[in-house]
């Protein structure tokens, strides 16, 4: 009886979540004409698969193992399910019939309906298996699937996005490589930087060095500077170069509540 209750709730929640994610992901492609319900990360990763059904499926499958490990090990469904698994599997199914993204991936109605089905099945699987697996196996799953998923995110995903940036052209490849390297140094993961590089490079290709790409470049620089500051990367760099921290810089970090060693 308990399993049936979990299954019923999981199907209901999964269907509602999948519908919102599927329709919202499709609506992102219509901004700024309509309101987009999604995130920049989801949009960038959907674009990186270039409308290929197999690419979307394998992309989502890679993160599914991490989502499954989290569900089994700690009983929590993480954002990987919402941002990566559901939208990519929905896109993969939508593109199986027609390869034209304009009629499938960008169609909120079609993506919403397919997303509801994908969400119901996926969330039901995660929840029922998490409740059925014995506690001893949950520990094993966390120790095996968790590190494997982390390796995928740390090593495989940056390479995939970097190759996508290189394939998109010289300008996009240059900015993707530059920002990816900076993001790796500051954040420990190159993916955010490569995605920003793709956005800037394609923007320049389509619009030239007009106001919009210049605003994007300025925003990216500000984001990197703020991220480096709040992560203490500037102090770490000075320490590694064997340079004493300026007193004003140390006081500035302390003023925002950071612990300075």
UniProtKB/TrEMBL annotation:
The keyword RNA-binding does not apply. InterPro entries: DUF4311. Pfam families: DUF4311 (PF14188). It comes from the Bacteria. The chain crosses the membrane at residues 6-26, 113-133, 145-166, 178-200, 212-230. Keywords: Membrane, Transmembrane, Transmembrane helix. The keyword Metal-binding does not apply. This is DUF4311 domain-containing protein. It comes from Peribacillus simplex.
């Amino acid at each position: 009886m308990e399993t049936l209750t979990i299954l019923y709730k999981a199907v209901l929640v999964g269907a509602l979540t999948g519908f919102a994610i599927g329709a919202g992901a499709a609506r992102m492609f219509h901004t700024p004409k309509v309101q987009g319900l999604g995130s920049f990360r989801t949009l960038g990763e959907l674009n990186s698969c270039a409308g290929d059904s197999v690419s979307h499926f394998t992309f989502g499958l890679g993160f599914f193992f991490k989502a499954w490990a989290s569900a089994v090990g700690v009983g929590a469904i993480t954002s990987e399910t919402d941002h990566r698994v559901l939208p990519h599997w929905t896109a993969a199914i939508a593109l199986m019939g027609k390869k034209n993204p304009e009629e499938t991936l960008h169609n909120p109605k079609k993506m919403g309906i397919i997303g509801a089905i994908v969400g119901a099945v996926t969330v039901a699987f995660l929840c029922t298996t998490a409740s059925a697996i014995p506690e001893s196996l949950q520990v094993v799953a966390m120790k095996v699937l968790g590190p494997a998923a982390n390796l995928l995110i740390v090593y495989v995903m940056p390479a995939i996005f970097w190759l996508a940036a290189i394939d998109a052209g010289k300008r996009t490849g240059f900015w993707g490589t530059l920002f990816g390297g900076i993001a790796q140094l500051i954040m420990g993961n190159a993916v955010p930087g490569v995605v920003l590089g793709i956005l800037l490079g394609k923007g320049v290709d389509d619009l030239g060095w007009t106001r919009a790409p210049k605003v994007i470049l300025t925003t990216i620089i500000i984001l990197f500077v703020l991220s480096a500051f709040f992560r203490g990367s500037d102090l770490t760099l000075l320490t590694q170069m064997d340079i004493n921290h300026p007193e004003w810089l140390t006081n500035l970090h302390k003023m925002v509540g950071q612990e300075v060693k």
